[in-house]
Write a structure and sequence with these properties.
Elements (H helix, E strand, L loop, with lengths): L13 E2 L13 E5 L8 H13 L5 E3 L1 H7 L3 E4 L10 H9 L6 E4 L5 H14 L3 H22 L8 E4 L9 E2 L1 H7 L8 E2 L8 H7 L3 E4 L6 H7 L13 H4 L3 E4 L1 H4 L7 H12 L13 E4 L3
Parallel strand pairs: 1-2, 4-5, 6-9, 7-8, 9-10
Antiparallel strand pairs: 2-3, 10-11
């Protein structure tokens, strides 16, 4: 969000998850993970995160010494999801250690309009309101165009966006809205609410015609590597999406999991996967891959 406003040179610190755009790589990392997720399975990650949150612990660590050295004027953080960011207590503790209190922007978007609102808020805080409004008009305007074209499509296929594999989670927050705008319907999803565990039998009953694998925080190559494990789920091969080769792995981290500028491209991608006869995909080849054909 900071970089699309042309302010990457003023960004003094990032989290360990910040990998886009390329110019942010190499900046000081203020936030790191307290859970070694790179060494764990999805089931182990789910169990570890659940246990830490139940115990009142965060899954992230804030480098207070580095934060003091960087002395930021503005801190962008969020309390939308405890799994995805330092807890409010950790941020408060870190701020108490700073000699100069910075402005804090708590970003908690639940849908696409609120993501645009976050960009607007950042523009106001960083004194570039015009740049923010221009970016929102040019980019979020594309979403309105997708909605109008998708509304003219003859069908609205049943879609299931799987945000976690083990256990299975449905999608939440802005993703169901993206599916709806792109001309699909996902009745298992929770629009503007948390992603939750969903019973596999409910997925079988929903019988999705298009299955999109988007585990939160994973890039395409990781999703492709994990996807074969889903074939052991009972009734997997009976799903219409599997029978008709409409199973797609996507770069979830880039286009869906993060409430930032690239949700626009994520909506364009969904439109292409749901209605390829109407929408083309001109983005990176690394955005998605069709799986389990035949």
């Amino acid at each position: 969000m900071v970089c699309v406003l042309g302010l990457s040179d003023r960004l003094v610190g990032i989290t360990h998850e910040c990998d886009y755009p390329p110019e942010v790589r190499g900046k000081p990392v203020v936030v790191s993970s307290a859970v070694p997720v790179e060494l764990m399975t999805q089931a182990e990650i789910d169990a570890a995160v659940t246990e830490r949150l139940r115990a009142g612990q965060s899954v992230y660590l804030v480098d207070e010494k580095l934060l003091r050295e960087l002395a930021p004027d503005v801190i962008l953080t969020q309390d939308l999801c405890q799994v995805c960011a330092p807890s409010g207590n950790e941020v408060t503790q870190a701020l108490n250690a700073l000699p100069k209190k910075p402005q804090i922007l708590w970003l908690t978007p639940g849908n696409l309009a609120e993501i645009a609102g976050n960009i607007r808020d950042i523009g106001a805080a960083l004194e570039c309101r015009d740049e923010a409004e221009a970016w929102i008009a040019a980019n979020f305007g594309k979403i309105d165009g997708i909605a109008k074209r998708a509304a003219q499509c003859a069908s609205r296929p049943r879609v299931f966006c799987m945000e976690w594999f083990d256990p299975v989670y449905c999608s939440g927050h802005w993703v169901p809205e993206m599916v709806r705008i792109a001309g699909g319907i996902d009745e298992l999803a929770h629009e503007k609410a948390y992603s939750t565990r969903v019973a596999w039998n409910d997925v079988l009953k929903w019988a999705p015609e298009i299955l999109i694998l988007m585990p939160c925080g994973y890039h395409l190559d990781q999703v492709v590597e994990m996807a074969p494990g889903l074939q052991s789920l009972p009734g997997w091969r009976d799903l219409p999406a599997v029978r008709n080769s409409q199973v797609y792995a996507v770069d979830a981290s880039s286009y869906f999991a993060r409430p930032g500028p690239r949700v626009v491209q994520g909506t364009e991608l969904l439109a292409h996967l749901i209605h390829p006869e109407t929408f083309s995909w001109d983005g990176p080849e690394t955005a998605y891959r069709r799986l389990m054909q035949g």
